[in-house]
Flavin prenyltransferase UbiX
Amino acid sequence: MDKFKPAITLAFSGASGAPYGLRLLEVLVAMNYQVFVLISSAARVVLDTESNIKLSGNEQKATEQLSTLFSAKPEQIKVFGKDNWFSPVASGSAAPKKMVVCPCSAGSVSAIAMGASDNLLERAADVVIKERGQLILVPRETPFSSIHLENMLKLSQLGVTIMPAAPGFYHQPASIADLVDFMVARILDHLNIEHTLTKRWGYGEQH
Ligand SMILES: Cc1cc2nc3c(=O)[nH]c(=O)nc-3n(C[C@H](O)[C@H](O)[C@H](O)COP(=O)(O)O)c2cc1C
């Protein structure tokens, strides 16, 4: 029997919204998924700015940092460096079929839409698209320019799910954590992963 549930690729790019990605990682680890983590250079700056996490640029050290942070089992979290072309996510023969970029910068949206594959995040997304797996992007920018919108339309038409970091308020959030969980819950829904993070529409208290 496999030690973990099937691996999911979770990529952090340099958009604002590091808490969304961190919470998603925490929940996936708690649910016993193996998670392959990709982190762009800008994402490391954002992680420090928004969540006070100074993540090492060394993939082994970064793996240890995140594993400690989320009490992951050995091998459960694997961070791959941005030039690690020999990692499983770099090839269609080994890459997980599911990948989430959370948060996703306008720059990464553009690079993915163009098939740039210039760093491991972009290559991994390109692989998921070509293998017709499930790619979810969580873009955060405001306002969106026509460039952003055109890139997102192109990706959406290719079957990529565009899920902007735009939490609702109809569940009456009492904290930032509630807003973060709103987004993470919707991402888990799309990954077909059962959870109890939020009440479902129509199943909560009536107002
Ligand atoms: C603190 C911080 C916040 C940022 N927020 C955003 C953002 O919300 N959306 C965005 O598209 N770019 C944002 N950027 C700019 C991107 O990080 C930058 O365009 C970078 O080149 C993206 O590269 P990447 O996609 O490889 O991570 C932010 C940068 C920093 C340092």
The beta strands are 5-12, 33-39, 77-80, 98-104, 134-139, 161-162. The mean pLDDT is 95. DSSP finds seven helices and six strands in the chain.
